[in-house]
Amino acid sequence: MSRRILRLAVTEVVVMTMALAAVAPLRFDAASVKPAEPGESFGMNSDPGRIEYRHFGIKGLVWVAYQVTLPQIVWPAWMADSSGGAYDITATFPPGTTDPQQHAMLQALLKDRFGLVFHRETREAKVYALVISEHGLKIHKSENPLTTRRLVSACATAGTDST
Length: 163
Known about the structure:
By secondary structure, the protein is α+β, with helices and mostly antiparallel strands. The protein has a domain at 26-133. It contains 4 helices and 4 strands; from the N terminus they run H-E-E-E-H-E-H-H. The protein has helices at residues 2-23, 58-66, 99-114, 145-157, and strands spanning 30-35, 43-47, 50-56, 87-92. Helix 2 packs antiparallel against helix 3 (99-114).
């Protein structure tokens, strides 16, 4: 009888823990949010148990937290010009936290600290489809992967000011 009661009590604790986990969003152990200094470099740095977002605007933080592309997000008119400022965020989390868990933690931080409210909806959009013509494929695999890397690198930096 006592073994059955213990098993029942353990089951209730597990169920209650699972219910709380489903309701309570994941949170960083600690987080610091400060306005970024003008001229600071933009970037993200991650170590086990710690992540830093440097000089991120709200749009960039939403992009990282929700794993969507910027064209997928419809912003209010007052945010359209990206002049909302930039922030430095440093946060800690338990070792072994997965990327999706970190994204959920950043989502909770955006809601708590910035008052972010959003909804999801499906919209139709025009897209381009890359299809092979009736005459067949005319591109070929590069024989020299180093040249391919140089080309990709050149395309990635095209249009950036290197002075």
